[in-house]
Amino acid sequence: MLKIRRDLVDAMVAHARRDHPDEACGVIAGPEGSDRPERFIPMLNAARSPTFYEFDSADLLKLYREMDANDEVPVVIYHSHTATEAYPSRTDVSYASEPNAHYVLVSTRDPEKHEIRSFGIVDGVITEEPIEVVESYRFAHTGPDDVPEQ
Amino acid sequence: MAVTVSIPTILRTHTGGEKSVPAAGSTVAEIIDDLEANHGGIKSRLVKEGSLHRFVNIYVNDEDVRFAGGLDAKVADGDNVTILPAVAGGAR
């Protein structure tokens, strides 16, 4: 299951709408081992395409160095599909290489109503998971590393 | 030529969980061969039909080797080599 704050969901959807009809993409980083998405990082789609997205390679290096320095991992990797459903394509599966990430897809094909779904993609196998949208993570964690969040 | 190679999560199964490992070589291709000698199976995840796999980015310091000669890109003593999976996909 993906537990995620509402403002982060809203930010992904807003990014997807803004870049429509091109695909939008980005990451929500969180502390290593927490499975808690916290830091919203919209990325440029270097492909600037309605059917493909790709992080620019220099941006990608900068992103991973930044996350490493912060002890963060990409908890969510999101992108939009602008004319098809929010389900991973064959291309999405062949590129998916973060076995611990939640791959979130936002479909903007309907101008009024977006669709958002989350998947694990491990060794080419897609597993859909429910999304629990919360207002805050404050009461959501009881682990030993628990620090109240906003 | 000794360098440090950063290994992405998905390839750490080949390095016993290590995030970075030492390797030797004067080109990216030699570095990869040296990695393979110590971490069997990793080469096929990086190289396909004699060139860099399209799902993978390799950087020497800040430079993406695709723009610096690919597998022939030069590596100097003390360089940092970073392997990252490309983040890409799309509707088709």
UniProtKB/TrEMBL annotation, chain A:
Gene Ontology process terms (BP): cysteine biosynthetic process; proteolysis
Known catalytic reactions: [CysO sulfur-carrier protein]-Gly-NH-CH2-C(O)-S-L-Cys + H2O = [CysO sulfur-carrier protein]-C-terminal Gly-Gly + L-cysteine + H(+)
Protein name: CysO-cysteine peptidase
Known EC number: 3.13.1.6
Keywords: Amino-acid biosynthesis, Cysteine biosynthesis, Hydrolase, Metal-binding, Metalloprotease, Protease, Proteasome, Zinc
GO CC terms in record: proteasome complex
Gene Ontology molecular function terms on file: metalloexopeptidase activity; zinc ion binding
Enzyme class: hydrolase
Pathway(s) this gene product operates in, as recorded in its UniProt entry: Amino-acid biosynthesis; L-cysteine biosynthesis
Domain MPN: 2-125
Keyword Nucleotide-binding: no
Keyword Protease applies: yes
Family classification: Belongs to the peptidase M67A family.
CDD domains, alphabetized: MPN_like
Species of origin: Actinokineospora iranica
Alphabetical list of Pfam families matching this protein: Prok-JAB
TrEMBL record, chain B:
Transmembrane regions: none
Pfam families membership: ThiS
InterPro entries per the UniProt record, alphabetical: Beta-grasp_dom_sf, MoaD_arc-typ, Mopterin_synth/thiamin_S_b, Sulfur_Carrier/Prot_Modifier, ThiS/MoaD-like
PANTHER family: SULFUR CARRIER PROTEIN CYSO, SULFUR CARRIER PROTEIN SLR0821-RELATED
Protein name: MoaD family protein
